[in-house]
Amino acid sequence: MNDFTRRTALKGAGATLGAAAFAHAMAPLTEWTKDLSLDEFLQRHYKELTPEEMKVILRRLEEETKQEYGRDVTIQDLPPQEGVSFGYALNLSVCIGCRKCAEACHQENNHDRRTGNSYIRVLEMEQGSLDLERGNADYDHAVPAPGKYYLPVQCQQCDNAPCVKVCPVQATWKEQDGVVVVDYNWCIGCRYCEAACPYHARRFNWSKPEVPAEEINPDQGYLSNRIRPQGVVEKCTFCLHRTRAGRLPACLEACPTGARVFGNLLDPKSPIRWVLENKRVFVLKEELGTRPRFFYFFDK
Amino acid sequence: MAASRHVLDYPRFLGRLLWMSTDGSWRFYVWMTVLTAICLVGANAWARQLVDGMALTGMSDHVSWGLYVANFTFGVGLAAGAVMMVIPAYLYHDHEMHDVTLVGELLAVAAIALSLLFIVVDMGHPERAWHLIPGVGRFNWPVSMLTWDVVVLNGYLLLNLHVCGYLLYMRFLGQKPRKRWYLPFVFLSIFWAVSIHSVTAFLYSGLGGRPFWNSALLAPRFIASAFITGPAFVILLLQVIRKFTGLPIGEGPGRTLTSVMRVTVLLNLFMLGSEVFTAFYTGGAHAGPAQYLFFGLHGHHALVPWIWTAVACNVASAVLLHLPASRRHVTVLNVACVLAFVGVWIEKGMGLIIPGFVPSTLHEMVEYVPTVTEWKITAGIWAFGLMLLTVAVKVALPVLSGQLASHSAPKGEPTSQEKEHRAAA
């Protein structure tokens, strides 16, 4: 009996010690739960939200941005326009590889400043080859270099998108106007979509994005360029906060050579339709059956 | 009437097992304390990773999965491999194996728990896991292979928990287990074991943008290597159990599992060879990842030492297992098992996941090296898995051997199952 009680007492002491050590090990979590509100935790999927609920969420997000980044911003949730289906084309004969588009994307979409993130990567390619193997994204010299051409790659907004297929929680989907979007408040951060994308179009927020208040673009969209939370995936949305309001994508406006053509595929008079009908266009990795909405062509 | 009694008695039985699991020799306490300490280091690293973000890992947008997913894949294989005890026992009526099948099923439970934890720590938002619950969240089934994996892994966990729990409880009560309450589940679990590892392979092989994974041979390779690691682990585990519990475990199960391994180590090497041939003979861009893995590409060599270690381990274990010495000397067998286990861990872990991302889909060369945070979390989860397995085996064995029985259970009487076995022997 005596032995039994001693053993039990020892076990009790061990259990207490273990619990204390565990609490100590998990202590950093208090900081994590501080940032996590119950409303945010229980928030439903984008498609299940009523307009009223969305309004409350948008105000909450604006307030959080103000608190955490010190900037007044407007976050909107613009719906796709009726009769609009977006397409993008890029003239490879004209592109000089200056990467102004990538820079504009960086600013427009409130990307993390430390990593210099952008949704666009420009590959310097060998003349006479379409083999990405021979491309180089890390060039650092005056452009255009002789014997090279330049291939900017961003989200191809595939009609048969592998990233959408693989998402286990439908946190990413294709909108009516053809844009593939992510609900940053629904994504669980498994990064299966990143593995599935054949175009390196997706980015993960490995840490909380850092953007100085004065550099923040205050014109923001819920599904596009609002400052993303840590631990979720993001991607190019054809700047839907601009394009759904009748403006052009930031990368197009920044292009000094006019290599980029954007518009409504359903409008027979749009410039994008003219390109598709009059140029010999191609898409990247057509053999994968992803059916991109991003077209490339050579002029001469 | 009787059923309602079990509703209360079964949890009580489990509670008693749990309480019993805290008793043991000083060796047991040392073992569990060391594992707990490693676990806590891992838990602390994970808590920090949640706060500061996954930038604490070596992963990037180019190599977006790393050590966690590698270990997840390996863990699923270990769980599936445990079925190599169930098949001889239930399909081929190997009675000696039948007596220790429970060990394999408990290993499956621990391995699945370990695999699921590796997924949890790989998630940017684990608190949003409820988005995966069908009906409550938005479960993208049947389109996403990851949802299939959620279904089969949790299903396999429940199947094994049920079979182990039921058989132990009946033994505890001194009653003969009723076939309809476990046999259908056992047979289902055989099919299910193959499914968990096939589905895990399909996660990768279904991605057209990743030529290294996009191979129909991936699922068969996964199964073959699972049937290496499962038996290898159990061969070692049975020896440990015999040493520390004095339980009379015959030589039969070990022999059967060794025979299984003799076939699967060769199958695995053959399939690896087929992949290597196809990649290198074809050449072109599709050979890039294999080139990077085995020889390095464009001055990047991070995986070369890993994969050649794996090849060396796998070839050495295959040779050892086919030497007559492996039958005579248990040390030779044990060395072969350890080599096979390590070889497959590398080949199916780092050797499979990382080359899927290098070169990237735009053919950029960005390498991956796990950080200290990742190693801490990985060690913590392995320690947790071992704790789970230790406790499970430790409490299951006294029940199995009849040392722990309900007061109402007939004492001293061998159960009818034991009689059957003796008659058969």
Automatic annotation (TrEMBL), chain A:
Domain called 4Fe-4S ferredoxin-type: residue spans: 86-116, 178-207
Keywords of this entry: 4Fe-4S, Iron, Iron-sulfur, Metal-binding
InterPro entries from the UniProt entry: 4Fe4S_Fe-S-bd (IPR017896), 4Fe4S_Fe_S_CS (IPR017900), ET_IronSulfur_Cluster-Binding (IPR050954), TAT_signal (IPR006311)
Any one Gene Ontology molecular-function term assigned to this protein's record: 4 iron, 4 sulfur cluster binding
Gene3D superfamilies in alphabetical order: 3.30.70.20
Protein name: 4Fe-4S dicluster domain-containing protein
Organism: Pyxidicoccus fallax
Biological classification of the source: Bacteria, Pseudomonadati, Myxococcota, Myxococcia, Myxococcales
